């Protein structure tokens, strides 16, 4: 049973994956197609072997039907991910990754692993990167105050994971600070 939006603390992972499905990705069509008309706009024409940018959801659908091969995104390679993991381990700031890197990598590795060089090594690197970033976000929550939380370069999925805890903690800290300030004002007026 779905909860009303007012009672949901955050998006579900499948909702975030749905949002990420609109990100553009390159494909190489295996057949010639005319322009396709969608609510969000037109895509195409498809002319093999010319690469074309399409929404990820369309690329995955075409891949499942063997109508294209997916061009692996620049960021989904061993060297790039190793570099980002090294940055995560030595820097306090989060390394710069695509906003939907978790969702896109999951969808692509699930559907188009044959189009991604070194897919198993990339899976391992993504897992290591995710664990390092989770530890860093947990450490960032320990310095939480009632004014702001400074964590740049988080992905939507990572933001979604800490949102329920942060929201509750932030509201409680604001209440405590308000009560403390009210008590100080009352004691100064006497």
UniProtKB/TrEMBL annotation:
Gene3D superfamilies: 1.20.58.1020, 3.40.5.50. The keyword Nucleus applies. GO terms for biological process: chromosome segregation; DNA replication; double-strand break repair via break-induced replication. It is found in: Nucleus. Residues 75-175 form the GINS subunit domain. InterPro entries: GINS_A, GINS_bundle-like_dom_sf, GINS_Psf2, PSF2_N. Keywords: Chromosome partition, DNA replication, Nucleus. GO terms for cellular component: GINS complex. Its main location: nucleus. Residues 12-71 form the DNA replication complex GINS protein PSF2 N-terminal domain. Belongs to the GINS2/PSF2 family. Component of the GINS complex. This is DNA replication complex GINS protein PSF2. It comes from Mucor plumbeus.
